[in-house]
């Protein structure tokens, strides 16, 4: 049955605001060697200064247009590998090899940058606004109380399609039955959606149901046991989505308790048809390497399946153009996220 909203226009893309934090790299991938990345079509070079702090600059020499990411770091500065111009962490030209005087105003843009929870975040919008917007805390990514694995991939699809995907995971039962909790194969409970000024969240409570064999193995419960489950998802910012899945274990002695998994997704638009996706799966139970060895291949295959599906959808949209897609009740969070994204883009414009 379709919802009362009927249909919603699927645009080829929804503008992503520059006034937001986007993850451009993991902490471990950034060092004294310059690293190139892109966010919202902007070329960015990231490196660490002599104190170990992250620096993010426009990745284009103001003299030669040569990428600074192909240069080298010297102390706190970075030298262009073609022109020899030296830039400080603030983007200002420090020296020019052919003359003693630096051209007045010579500089490249310096991006506000923060390092938090194992990720390097860049603010591509107006620098003065960055201090007014905090990066949501993702403490489970680095806490010793949680076991985390994941990866960073590039998807040949618009970032809006990734947002749509995470706003409704009921497709898992069809896309990857091995990864899907069996409870998703039945009619899903009513979704509860909450919209705030800058976030959208939803939740569903599922009745006691069986688990996948790999889930039961990790939780160390009988394969035929049934457990109540709860799903929560939150759009925390244009570049960040977090899902939470709780499994209530009861009547199994030491295994009893709420077993929680967080699925963290940093979504960074590279351009209108390409998105950087950093994903992490964190759990507060069974921290053994054996459990990770069971769970990680399942999740890795699932996210590969998601990426292939979204790339297929993108090709169809590119070839045939956007159209009006039918919406159902399960799309309530997706519709709310799209409305919020349009508002954020309109306010910035």
TrEMBL record:
PROSITE patterns in alphabetical order: RIESKE
Residue intervals passing through the bilayer: none
Keywords from the named record: 2Fe-2S, Iron, Iron-sulfur, Metal-binding, Oxidoreductase
Coiled coil: none
Keyword Oxidoreductase recorded: yes
GO molecular function: 2 iron, 2 sulfur cluster binding; metal ion binding; monooxygenase activity; oxidoreductase activity, acting on paired donors, with incorporation or reduction of molecular oxygen
Limits of the Rieske domain: 21-122
UniProt-listed Pfam families: Rieske, VanA_C
Superkingdom assignment: Bacteria
Protein name: Rieske 2Fe-2S domain-containing protein
Source organism per UniProt: Gordonia asplenii
